[in-house]
């Protein structure tokens, strides 16, 4: 068999495989922030299955959660060395209250057989604050129009964003990750804004 013939057969095989998986892949790519690497790796097989739906439909994750930080690190500007360096920050002495409420069962996508998913409304409140912040999901097409409800995967993982931070919570493991992405890329070399990643634990309290 010539190299050219082998290449053509390989290309046809790849194209057939790509056609079968492209629908599930497109859905998965729009689900979560790229920081959720473990979730993204697990998504293709779940999203392409006709038997197992990707999203939670039950509303079982509704409740009030107490989230406490355990570690935080990032990058900071060093005035003496005149450069940015990786660093460890002091863990803040605060509590984060996360309220998760069911909104409406929706179908993701325009197709009639779109994945059913429970839409959640998520609010965040820090212990020293008197006001709540809405943590919104990624805008996506549903049968009710373009929505920014928070949708939780069947693995118990959700991602949302408030005006400043990006938040990912795994309700099954009771762990969260919060990313503060502001600073550095704006061009300023100072300690006013330092991008960071905070991790911690969440427990249901109500």
Tell me what you see in this structure:
It is a single chain. This protein is α+β, with helices and mostly antiparallel strands. The protein folds into two domains: 45 residues, no CATH class; 142 residues, no CATH class. It is 18% helix and 40% strand. The chain is built from two helices and twelve strands; from the N terminus they run H-H-E-E-E-E-E-E-E-E-E-E-E-E. Strands 1, 2, 3, 4, 5, 8, 9, 10, 11 and 12 form a ten-stranded antiparallel beta sheet that branches. A two-stranded antiparallel sheet has the order 6-7. A hairpin with a 6-residue loop joins strand 4 and strand 5. The longest helix has 27 residues. It is globular, with a radius of gyration of 21 Å. The N terminus is likely disordered.
In summary, what is this structure?
With 206 residues, the chain is α+β, with helices and mostly antiparallel strands. It has two helices and twelve strands; from the N terminus they run ααββββββββββββ.
